[in-house]
Amino acid sequence: MSDFNSEIFQFWGKADEHSTLPAVCHMLDVAFVAKAIIQKLSEQEQHILLQPFLALESIDEDAAIAMVVVLIALHDIGKLTPGFQYKLKERVETLFDTSKFTHDEDAETKHGNSGFVILHNYFCEQYGVNNHAARVMLCAVASHHGVFVANKKECGLCGGEQWSDIQTQAIEWLADYFSVDLDWFNQSQAKALTPEWLSYIAGLCSVADWIGSDASQFNYCTVNEYNAEQRMDIAHALVGFLNIKQVTASKNKADFAEVLGFKPNALQLKVLELIKQKELPWISIIESGMGSGKTEAAQVLADHFIRHMGHSGLYVAMPSQATANQLFKRTLHFLSKKELGYQNIEAHLKHSNADFEPQYEALRLKSIDYQQQHDATHSVVANQWFTAKKHGLLAGVCVGTVDQLLMAAMLYKHNFVRLFGLANKVLILDEVHSLQSFQLDLLKNTLQWMAKLQVRVIILSATLPRTMLVELIHAYAKACKQAIEVENSPYPRITTFSSGSLARSYTIVERQQKNEDLSRPPASYHVQLHETTPKHCVSRMADDVLTTANKAGCGVFVCILNTVNKVQELSEIITKYCDENKASNIEHLTFHAKYPLATRLSIEELIEHQVGKHPTDHQRINPNRPVKDKRLILIGSQVLEQSLDYDACEMFTQIAPVDLLLQRVGRVWRHQINNSVRSEFVKAPKLNIYLPSMDKIPQDYGEWFGHGEVFIYPSHLLAVTTRLLWAACEETDESTFQIDINQDMDDWINKVYADVDQQVTWLEQEYDKAFEFRLDKRTQYVLAKRMMFDASKASVRDLLKYNNSEIENDEVVLSTRLTSISVQLIFLVDSGERQLIPVTEFLPYKQKVQTLKRLENECKELAEIDWGAEQRLKKGDIARLKQAQISMSHSKWVTHFQEQEEHWPFAFVTKEVWQRSPTLFNCVPVILDQDLTYSNSKLGELRLNPKLGLIVGKGKSYE
Terminal CA-to-CA distance of the chain, rounded, Å? Predict the structure, then answer.
């Protein structure tokens, strides 16, 4: 066994104000953690990691694991250099002989760089390891700080002869400790060390380093105090506690009805049939109508893959934070089913505002108590370790935005940790039709990585164009290196690919029933077109929804507009009517993105309570159980299109691309059709669309909408949709028609999203704009390509032909979405006692917001925010400030606040203290007056209305 009296233990690797830990001891700690993780990996995941070494002559599984562990142990060999050791100048003389191990001004200070050079030279010169194979293996472990290190020319000096001897001794000591013959590496072939292997072991190395660097578990001590067996036990206990890459659950077959509480419908039965097939699909695309049970079908399929096929967890990718919040709740409910037998599975919500989601916060707090109950088991937990940046995807189950997924296959620092976290998991992608062209390009690259890392993918959509479906299948199947034919069965359908050259497609055939199933959404909808103009659109919609609500007597009526200012305009009209006609007993709610975060979450909760699937107070307005003489008008922007699970009796909407119109109509009678207690007036599910007439289709839809949609919705798509809608009315000679979701979906979607060249007869004068749109898509692809961690590269050599070492703030350099320039604002107000507080804590604001709970804590005094902090604001204060955040994208206001950020005219807090918090780094404070207004003589004013949100007034520069 290796001797711990060696002089290699003189050199420090970790330090605090008082103590140090020898570098080789730290390397052992990290190796122990890595080995503990490897031993808990499933068989197929171990195969990803060990296969290049198992293919070598005379190497069994134990030897292959030892080779990986030694490589990871060597990750910090670069710390045994003058450039690193002399960072602790005041203490080095007490550690080693500085006359023997001298400093060099030209020494490399980045120990990842120096470690790569030391190891590459040693393995190639001492053991004749293939140059390219050595480059891959050693790059994987030297890159644990997040950026791939593979260029010897960029490295400074690593020390003279004395330093070189110590480095060699340390390498050989570690190899001896783990019983590895370094000659084994001589057989390694670069071809076997694939990009997916590089990413996987690099991710494993970083994660092991993070855990092994936790000083609260691996305390700093001298080599004489170091107890290797004890540290090994700590490593195993920590890995077991965190359940990294491991899921414990029952292997018993679960009955669908027992788990979900209802009998499976035709879609879900088809999924249950797929589970029984010999060769299960690697990618499944489920296309079915809104509210048809796609989520439950995906959960059942994912559960089978995890509990019976050895997959190591689940990531659910949603298009927005609001949809992620909703799915997180449903996922927790599913995982908690006792029939599935999940035990202590880590379940986390991952997006920038996840900490403020009430159920996630409650689970995290409960999990702190669980840690005291050593022998207790719970179905789901949420340990604090996974809430740190970049840790989330390592949890057994994670629900988050699609952005978190895309970042795994982009040039972000530590992207390979995300890939490691996703490897061998199940991925559910919902609402993929809503992705931008730019995001779709990134997603196709990500899907290639998922295929390489043995991730089974389940994609859900009600309105997926055929072209997009084929592109997604082809992207995942690229690893097969052969042409894939994709069958095209009628909608609704499930398309699957397992292997070979054919992706199969299965139509979902609904069972015939004597009585219509009240739990299912309707098959067809009545569509009413309303010809109008930009000037009269909002007032016309207001008249129509008020007339409908008054005639109906009860129910929920939803209005969706495409810009926030139009939402606010309609809300003001409805508010004025309700104030003047209190006897009408009409209630109204407004929801869009321009509220402070705390208010948004409050309104989401209120909508779910009042018009969601399972409202807790059945005396409130509910479309499933309408209350006599009560009616609700819900007014909102696109957030009502897919973010919330609610039910409308009738809907009123502005023109939008056809797939989004179909998404919106999916909220009409979503939870019950033919409900006997609905108003007699509301006899059929109906969608009202407000749009220009056929002969007045505008050249510029921006003028029609106020320029908000020019970026959101390409004008040629709006033009084609408008023509299709009016054409559907030609047979009736009226402005109405019926749409059957199952029969008509494909035809409607594919006509709008067909190739531009096929749309000539539809487009006419819009053709030029469509051609410009196609060019713009090409530009977006080029931009996305520059940001990708490119899965199409067959070798590591090709993959690493980029250098992101200059990226200091990767969130600014790279982006998962193409949006207009925006600024994050934190709204503050004087509490009346010369103390600035978040506007969400200001009593006159709190008393008027739309909320479910009339706040019990309204009179509770919160501690003053410590604006005079020396280093940074307190964590609790930062969380309070975050609750008052709103994103703003009006270009002139953005410029104004960017100038404020640069010059910092604020006396209440220093710029340094404010920006030391990553949460506040890109945010700018805005101080409102007592009327909740911020004024600028040139730009106008910003007014925060508790019910309407942020209202942007215009000043001289807008006129």
Answer: 82
What does the alpha-carbon distance between residue 479 and residue 451 come to, in Å, rounded to a whole number? 7
Which residues have a Cβ under 8 Å from the Cβ of 465 and sit 6 or more positions away?
A: 433, 659, 749, 750, 752, 753
Angle of CA points 389, 390, 391, to nearest 5°: 95
Give the number of other CB atoms < 10 A from CB of residue 269: 16
SS3 (DSSP) at 539: helix
Q: 43-82 pLDDT, tens per residue? A: 999 999 999 999 998 899 999 999 999 999 999 999 999 9
pLDDT tens for residues 512-547? 554 445 556 788 899 999 999 888 999 999 999 999
- Beta strands at 933-936 and 586-591: parallel, antiparallel or unpaired: unpaired
List, in order, residues 6 or more apart from 738 with CB less than 8 Å away: 524, 525, 526, 527
**Contact (Cβ atoms closer than 8 angstroms) between residue 666 and residue 620:** no
Kind plus residue range of the DSSP H or E element containing 345: strand 345-350
Indicate whether 603 pLDDT > 80.
Answer: yes
Write out pLDDT tens, residues 407-418.
Answer: 999 988 999 999
pLDDT digits (tens, 9 = 90+) for 298-342: 999 999 999 999 999 999 999 988 889 989 999 999 999 888 988
Candidate ranges 152-161, 385-394, 851-860; pick with highest mean pLDDT: 385-394
pLDDT at position 158 over 70: yes
Is residue 670 classed as helix, strand or coil in its secondary structure? coil
**15: Cβ–Cβ under 8 A, 6 or more apart, which residues?**
21, 88, 91, 220
Query: What CA–CA distance (Å, rounded) separates 205 from 400?
Result: 24
Of the candidates 33, 28, 35, the one whose C-alpha atom is nearest the C-alpha of residue 6 is 28
CA gap 898, 924 in Å, rounded: 8
CA distances to 252, 303, 313, 378, 466 from 255, rounded to whole Å, are 10, 12, 21, 21, 34
CA distance 340 to 306: 11
How far, in Å, CA of 240 to CA of 237, rounded? 5
- What pLDDT, on the 0 to 100 scale, is given for residue 901? 93
* CA pair distance 679, 373, nearest whole angstrom: 52
- Specify the residue for token string 């788990």: 259
SS3 527: strand
pLDDT tens-digit readout, 102-152: 888 888 888 999 999 999 999 999 999 999 999 999 999 999 998 888 877
Task: State pLDDT tens for residues 276-301.
Answer: 888 899 999 999 988 888 999 999 99
Yes or no: say if 822 and 887 are a contact pair by the CB < 8 Å rule: yes
Across the range 688-709, mean pLDDT stands at 72
The Cα angle at residue 738 between residues 735 and 741, in degrees rounded to 5: 140
Nearest to 202 by CA among 450, 370, 421, 23: 421
Query: Which H helix or E strand runs over 299?
Result: helix 294-309
Structure tokens at 817: 């979405």
- Tokens at residue 499, please? 């292997």
Over residues 416-430, the pLDDT tens digits come to 999 999 999 999 999
| Structure tokens that stand for 624 in this block | 């499933």
With residue 295 as reference, give the H or E element that holds it.
helix 294-309
Given phi > 0 = left and psi -120 to 50 = alpha, else beta, which region is 943?
A: beta
How far does Cα 250 stand from its chain's mean position? Answer: 28
> How far is it, in rounded angstroms, from Cα 849 to Cα 855?
10
Instruction: Strand 940-945: give its sheet, edge to edge.
Output: 933-936, 940-945, 949-952
CB atoms within 10 A of CB 809: 10
The SS3 assignment for 908 reads coil
**What distance in Å separates the CA atoms of residue 440 and residue 816, rounded to the nearest whole number?**
10
Reduce the secondary structure of 363-410 to three states and give it as a string.
HHHHHHHHCCCCCCCCCEECCHHHHCCCCHHHCCEEEEEHHHHHHHHE
Q: Say what percent of the chain tops pLDDT 90.
A: 52
User: How, if at all, do strands 345-350 and 397-401 pair?
Assistant: parallel
